[in-house]
Design goal:
The structure holds 2 protein chains of 2 kinds.
Chain A: E1 7-10, H1 14-23, E2 28-31, H2 37-42, E3 50-53, E4 63-66, E5 69-73, H3 78-82, H4 85-90, H5 92-99, H6 104-109, H7 112-116, H8 129-135, H9 162-169, E6 173-178, E7 181-186, E8 206-213, E9 218-224, E10 235-242, E11 245-251, E12 258-262, H10 267-280, H11 291-312
Parallel strand pairs in A: 1-3, 2-3
Antiparallel strand pairs in A: 4-5, 5-8, 6-7, 6-8, 9-10, 10-11, 11-12
Chain B: E1 4-10, E2 13-19, H1 25-32, E3 51-54, E4 57-60, E5 73-75, H2 88-95, H3 105-118, H4 124-131, H5 141-155
Parallel strand pairs in B: 1-5
Antiparallel strand pairs in B: 1-2, 3-4, 3-5
Helix pairs in contact in B: 2-5, 3-5, 4-5
The chains are: A alpha+beta, B alpha+beta.
The complex binds flavin-adenine dinucleotide and FE2/S2 (inorganic) cluster (2 copies).
Chain lengths: ~325, ~160
């Protein structure tokens, strides 16, 4: 499969990357590991005039535990992060979601920044141009209706980042650089809830760092998938537990992760919370498993994950 | 499109090329350098048939730009054979019959090589975890896992 034409530029600093983005009048895409972007380009789901490679930006490659935060540069690979001693010791949840992401070869190339900003997915969207043109363009491609739920006015394509769920459960924050300066946002605030435009960040904004409060936590990640390697989540639940307060994040279903704080961990509270998470999950026939099954599994994985944390303290 | 000048090493040979910015490493290897060992199967990063070794790590060359390879040290399956002698993995893949149609084989071998280079006594579990990055449509996984295990005995 041949890539479309574009210019290639390698940025040397954050400011340089943003300046290059502006030079191409916004018709550019940032490139980290390319494991999400390259397939999109091959399918003609993006047609930038330029690709701005971020891999030469040294400051985005660092991991540091300072001032009560674990600060992770956006270009750190999933594999490096997974094998970092602080991650293993403080955030077993993040270790598990990193380990469950695609496969090790891809983890060695894929970055955490790219993982969080990966595009949402749908069986009607991640297809070749010929296939999509024959079918008719959907909402996410600029068409008038959704090809999965014909009368839907919103796109419910799935956000499939495994690690976003862990990071949201761990109350992580994202540092974002724009031409005007830098700002910080709680990670759960970067989602629009619409699959057509999944992120609130302005075009050209660069994710520079992810920061997690450096407090030890217990955690469990449960992911539904069919092959157990290489494949995206079809539903997933991340639980982080600090001082007997559980923060649960549900994803892989719909365009944004959903967060829940458990008021208690007794059986009744857990059952009710799992049931409402299952009710909230907006599963539609846009993945390889049926919506009814994925919806039900949200509740099952929710209970399973919380019970595992309570039992094993893993 | 402005062409990009890249210099890298392929199988110990210094290579300098002027490439189109949208050329993938797989295209460069197969079409410019006649190294057709790495295969294009899915073309979108899913299967691992195009895996080559770059700076000691396995890389899916169908979703990487050659422009990104400045300064890289690349090894393809053609580079495993030294002075006519096959790499232990190539040998054991033949002996164990770990090849059916052969389309996934070079990717499997390159992925396994990066494991054995770091850990020459992998457990069965570690072999399976590494190999699970690659798809074999003929589903000959058992023999592939066995072949990697046998090769580890020869490299130990
Ligand atoms: C076969 C296959 C299986 C996969 N399975 C999974 C899976 O199970 N779970 C999962 O979570 N993901 C999966 N992925 C998706 C992908 O591999 C990961 O999300 C990966 O972490 C993306 O990182 P990257 O560095 O390759 O991103 P890229 O492709 O380089 O970038 C992704 C997006 O983010 C933008 N971007 C990257 N860095 C920045 C930055 N610093 N600032 C602003 N924008 C930026 C890019 O412009 C692009 O739009 C899979 C991919 C493949 C090909
Ligand atoms: S051909 Fe590159 S991963 Fe399938
Ligand atoms: S031997 Fe045919 S794909 Fe593996």
């Amino acid at each position: 499969m041949i890539l479309p034409g574009f210019e290639y530029r390698k940025a040397t600093s954050v400011a340089d990357a943003i300046a290059l983005y502006n030079d191409f009048e916004g018709k550019a895409r940032y490139l980290a590991g390319g494991t999400d972007l390259m397939p999109l380009l091959k399918y003609r789901l993006a047609a930038p005039a330029a690709i701005i490679d971020l891999k030469g930006i040294e400051e985005l490659k660092a991991i540091a535990a300072i001032d009560g935060w674990l600060t992770i540069g956006a270009n750190v690979t999933l594999f490096e992060l997974k094998n970092h001693p602080v991650v293993k010791e403080y955030f077993p949840l993040l270790y598990q979601s990193l380990d469950a992401t695609s496969c090790e070869t891809l983890q060695m190339r894929a970055t955490i920044g790219g993982n969080l900003l990966q595009d949402t997915r749908c069986i009607e969207y991640n297809k070749s141009l010929e296939w999509r043109a024959a079918r008719g363009f959907c909402l996410k491609m600029g068409g008038k209706c959704c090809n999965v739920v014909p009368h839907s006015r919103v796109c419910l394509s799935n956000y499939c980042s495994d690690n976003a769920l862990s990071l949201v459960a761990l109350s992580a924050e994202a540092d974002l650089a724009e031409a005007g300066g830098e700002k910080t946002a709680g990670l759960e605030k970067i989602y629009t809830g619409s699959g057509s435009k999944p992120f609130v960040v302005e075009p050209g904004t660069l994710l520079t760092r992810i920061r997690i409060p450096l407090e030890k936590s217990k955690g469990v990640y449960e992911k539904l998938r069919v092959r157990n390697s290489i494949d995206y989540p079809l539903a997933a639940v991340a639980v982080a537990m600090k001082k007997s307060v559980a923060r649960v994040c549900v994803g892989g279903v719909g365009p944004a992760p959903l967060v829940y704080e458990l008021a208690g961990t007794d059986e009744g509270t857990l059952r009710d919370a799992a049931n409402s998470a299952s009710t909230d999950a907006r599963a539609v026939p846009n993945a390889i498993l049926s919506p009814a099954y994925r919806k039900k599994m949200v509740g099952v994985l929710f209970r399973r994950a919380v019970q595992k944390v309570l039992r094993e303290g893993a | 499109m402005e062409t990009v000048k890249v210099a890298f090493t392929v199988n110990n040979e210094e290579t300098v090329l002027q490439v189109s910015p949208n050329e993938t490493l797989l295209e460069t290897l197969r079409e410019r350098l006649d190294l057709t060992g790495a295969k294009e199967s899915c073309g979108i990063g899913s299967c691992g048939a195009c895996t080559v070794e770059v700076n000691g790590l396995p890389l899916r060359s169908c979703i990487v730009l050659t422009s990104e390879m400045q300064g890289a040290d690349i090894t393809t399956v053609e580079g495993l054979n030294r002075e006519g002698k096959l790499h232990p993995l190539q040998q054991t893949f033949m002996e164990e019959g770990a090849v059916q149609c052969g389309f996934c084989t070079s990717g499997m071998i390159m992925t396994a090589k990066t494991l054995l280079d770091k850990n020459n006594q992998p457990t069965q579990k570690e072999i399976i975890k590494t190999i699970s990055s690659n798809v074999c449509r003929c589903t000959g996984y058992k023999k592939i896992v066995k072949a990697v295990g046998e090769a580890s005995k020869k490299t130990a």
